[in-house]
Specification:
Shape: globular
Number of helices: 5
Largest sheet: 2 strands, parallel
Radius of gyration: 16 Å
Pfam families: rve_3 (PF13683)
Number of strands: 2
Low-confidence stretches: none
Mean pLDDT: 89
Protein name: Integrase core domain-containing protein
InterPro entries: Integrase_cat-core, RNaseH-like_sf, RNaseH_sf, Transposase_IS3/IS150/IS904
Number of domains: 2
Domain Integrase catalytic: 1-96
Strand content: 5-15%
Helix content: 55-70%
Distance between the termini: 30 Å
């Protein structure tokens, strides 16, 4: 999944074709609704300040691997204040148990 705002770059044929070529699904915020992009912006802020190497990455593969590791950490381990300190996966599992 690749999420962005509706900037002209993200809507261009070259960019959308590239996203598809890499096997991704493109998602865009609704026009004029900044709240659509807020969760993604929050994720990127957390990634940059908590995880990303200060000097960047030496190659694309290293960056991809590091993002994969952070996604797993963010969803399975990292405590989230919104979820009363639970990771998203644990919060979802707990919520489902409470409903059943």
């Amino acid at each position: 999944m690749f999420h962005s705002d509706q900037g002209s770059i993200y809507g261009s044929e070259i960019f959308t074709d590239s996203v598809k070529k890499h096997g991704l699904t493109q998602s865009m915020s609704r026009r004029g609704n900044c709240w659509d992009n807020a969760p993604v912006e929050r994720w990127f802020r957390s990634f940059k300040y908590e995880w990303m190497l200060k000097g960047g990455y030496s190659d694309f593969e290293s960056a991809v691997n590091d993002v994969r590791e952070y996604v797993m950490y963010y969803n399975h381990i990292r405590p989230h204040s919104y979820n009363q300190g639970l990771s998203p996966i644990l919060a979802k599992t707990t919520y489902r148990r409470l409903l059943n």
